[in-house]
Known about the structure:
By secondary structure, the protein is of the alpha/beta class. Helix content is 25%, strand content 29%. The protein contains nine helices and 19 strands.
Amino acid sequence: MGSGPIWTGMSRTLHLGRALLCALAIGLLVAPAALAARPPIALGVNIDDAPGNAGKLDSYTRLVGAKPAIVMWYQSWSEPLYYSSQAAAVADRQITPMITWEPADGDRGIPLSQIIAGARDDYIRQSADAARAFGRPMLIRLAHEMNLQGSPWAAGRYGNTPAKYVAAWRHVVSIFRSEGVTNVQWVWSPNVDWGDAPFSAYFPGDAWVDWVGLDGYNWGTQKQSGWRSLGQVFGSSYDRITRLSDKPVMIAETAAPERGGDKAAWIRHGFLRDIPNRLPRVRAAVWFDRTKETDWRVNSSSSALAAFREVAASPLYGGIAKPRVRARLSFSTRCRRHGHRPVCATVGRVRFPAVAAGAAAPSCKGRVKVVIRLGHKRFRSKGTVNRHCRYRAKTKLAKNVRKGIRRARVSIRFSAASAAGKAGPKRVKLR
């Protein structure tokens, strides 16, 4: 959803590194055949008051440990395409801008029929001249989330129809082309469709777009849809949009809350597993880093920030991942029956191999995951490793565990910012 000047929705900013800038400049991302080299996925962000406030870009870079490749922001048609402060901030930092360009005057949408009839051509030409003068690769996301009824350019608003949306889109792009603008790539970006927001009728065609994007969020407990993985949020719409177009795919807006599930796990699994495996044509992803309906920011918790820093450091997103030290784990587990519910207590310690002279020892501050297997059933628990490298986890087993089972198998995994390890399975007696 969008968070521009006329929308009560939300928007996100995206990060593009130098590799993506070069790719945009020479057109490598336009056709799937060019993806054989697989450049890094561009990781971007939308930050409140950025890039106009350049200090916020620098603060975000320090926070996540990497410069965003794309920064996305909103401009209405009552404003210039961009302000000089915005252009200077992204150009000085070699960040690709993505302007979510909303055809609206103040809080009122512009009827698409006016755009088609040429009533806004002077403004569009001025914007085309500004885009060409920028002199660097630029993404323009025109009239996004057109498949949501809250959008001023959706069907039924101001006499709009899907056919008028397509005609208006092509009219705007045609003017940019006639003005000799070659540094703009157009991002067509509907919201994900979970059954009530079809978007195919709004597609202008591959000849008129350079990217196809999708906006989607894990709303957790805030909506009836409940907690959904990134793959679940985007999966079905990704399948539709990749049948509709051969262009590269962008996750143009996304985020997750703290309430309803494990945000850190959502970030890791979504960006490091779902995108490369379930959504392989995604070549850019933008995080909405704001507090709005909830705290969507990557640093809403220390665990969420640690997960996002891992994503930013991953080679998949153009980062240089630091090698993890392999930790050695020792542990013991005692299981006792308390009435009908057996409880297992696992205690242990994390150790590291000898560190070379002058090198910093890795921190053992992290988490452990304990898995106890009883027959065909598995029971899981988590524990925190303290600064003395010791940990404890309590695992409650099911009330209906068969009394005939006398032994369990225990496995444990440890994960920290610069270290990881595992141990087991070890057999323990169930008393």
